[in-house]
Amino acid sequence: MQKSISLFQVRPEKPDPEKLGVELIQRRLARIRHQMEQSQPVSDWLDVATAMWRMRQGGDDDSISGLISKPTVEDFPHYPTRLSSAERTRITAWVQKRVAAIPAGSPLSAKIPLEEREALTAAARGMRAVYLTEHQIDEAFAAVHKDFPWLVAVTEKAWRIALRRSQSGLPVGVGAMLLSGAPGLGKSAWARAVAQVLEVPSVEIDVGATGGVFDVQGIAQGWGSASKGKVVSVMVAERLGNPLIILDELDAGSSTAGTTRGSIPGLSKILMGMIEPSTAAAWTCPYFQVPVDLRHTSWVASTNDFAHIEQALLDRMTVIEIPNLTHQQLLGFAEREAKKRFDEEIVGAVVEQAERCLRRGYRLSLRHVVRLLDRVEEAADRPMLH
């Protein structure tokens, strides 16, 4: 279920009361004129006036002077040319009262493209968030556990966090989590699965490849390469206020980030402000320069070793260390995934091959098993040679 929620503190620019008053007076006058033109007395008068005009002209006169003298509804004796003084005073007083009630606020910068300003304003008016009942959350995480049984500790922790949020009447989410463990344990795949069962949009950011700073928060206008961060981008695009952000290799985050005009704080410092509830409630987007409420955003970060991550950031996250997979867990994964692709005969061969590799001392991970399945599938689809 989705409900409306207020996240972007985008305040409209105060209109000029004088211009707005003139516009409303003109609209009111046009409406009165339209109603009068559609009335029966005006229609009857116009029929009589047109008939008299034809008599004077000796029939229809197509000359310019004849057409100019042809009567119209504007020639009606009581056709309104302006509103009464009392009506104008009433409209002007109403406009001044409404404009004074609009909270003051800086409009979006004119440097931001018009279509992006319009998109943000529209999203701010129509922002929603996903809410799930406790029963729905139970079913969602049961499905995750079925596909990721070796991550039972992670799933259980996320499930309990989501339940507490539901009980508090908050949008569904898992808070800020850090999953630490060897490569190939399915940490990022687990996060994607959670986003899917919770029915929230997700964004994956490869911190190891980009440093993460600009992808997460964006770059302010005036820095030469201004851009929106992926967090705000997905919220505006999807108009949902509780996305799940996946950060791969968080320990590779840059300590500082350079731009054409200097450097800005690194990823850890930026994430602290976006995760800590007190600052996340009104985090300022560098690109749009407006406060955004990020308290309902979920964060799932992964790392191979959290020893290089700042303690201040770790204190703001739920850190879970994931042990290496046992041989039995690897074989179970191989069997489950093989059953999704092949018949029983090939499934048995795949599991046997994985078991043989383990007996020989190979250190298999989930990625190795997936590659093995891909090779088997490719061989099975290869045409027979005659």
Considering DSSP H and I runs of 4 or more, what fraction of the residues is helical? 40-55%
Series of secondary-structure elements, N-terminal to C-terminal: EHHHHHEHHEHEHHEEHEEEHHEEEHEHHH
Total E-strand runs = 13
Strand arrangement, major sheet: 4-7-12-3-13
Overall pLDDT score: 85
Proportion in β-strands: 5-15%
Give Rg in angstroms.
Answer: 33 Å
What is the number of helical segments per DSSP (H or I, 4+ residues)? 17
Characterize the biggest β-sheet. Answer: 5 strands, parallel
Tell me, what's the shape? elongated
- In the predicted model, the low-confidence regions spanning at least 5 consecutive residues are none
Span between termini: 57 Å
Structural class: alpha/beta
Walk me through what this model shows.
With 386 residues, this protein is an alpha/beta fold. The chain has 17 helices and 13 strands. The chain has helices at residues 17-37, 40-57, 64-68, 85-101, 114-126, 134-147, 152-167, 187-198, 207-210, 213-217, 230-238, 267-275, 277-280, 311-314, 327-341, 344-359, 366-381; strands at 2-4, 128-130, 176-180, 202-206, 218-219, 227-228, 244-248, 256-259, 262-265, 283-284, 291-292, 298-303, 318-321. A five-stranded parallel beta sheet has the order 4-7-12-3-13, sandwiched between helices. Strands 1-2 form a two-stranded antiparallel sheet. A hairpin with a 7-residue loop joins β5 (218-219) and β6. α6 runs antiparallel to α8 (187-198) and α15 (327-341) runs parallel beside α17. It is elongated. The two termini are 57 Å apart. The model has no long low-confidence stretch (mean pLDDT 85).
